[in-house]
Amino acid sequence: MPKVKALSKRKQQRPEGWAEIEPTLNEFEQKMRDAENESTAGKRKVESTWSVTQIHHQRSRYIYDLYYKRKAISRKLYKYCIDSGYGDGNLIAKWKKQGFEKLCCLQCIQPRDTNYGTACICRVPKANLEEGRTVQCVHCGCRGCASSD
Fold this sequence. Notes:
By secondary structure, the protein is mainly α. It has helices spanning 18-37, 50-69, 75-84, 89-95. The chain is built from four helices and no strands.
């Protein structure tokens, strides 16, 4: 998750429509700072980054919904947000593909990060899991992001 790039004087000005989405993106930025600074005492090692990953997902989903679902922002503003680091372009690209509409993070589909070389447990549809079993991803804390749920 890259840091949001600061706008330099040499680079182009912010595109039209930025004023409408800037307060929400600033809220996400403040939540991200709070999550990065929160104490990890009493948490497992893998739980310490879950809040950062979840906020990153929410911020990227916000930009995705504005551009692809509601069509509320221009392509120029969308590209600016992706290039500036406000949204994850790779994650958004996966959301556009069938079967990945609810994907929580890119780590969950990388087979090299699992013990058996498969996808993460959160990608398994709830209908295929044991009844009454609660699963939670070790990468991001997701409780299920399969598209068929």
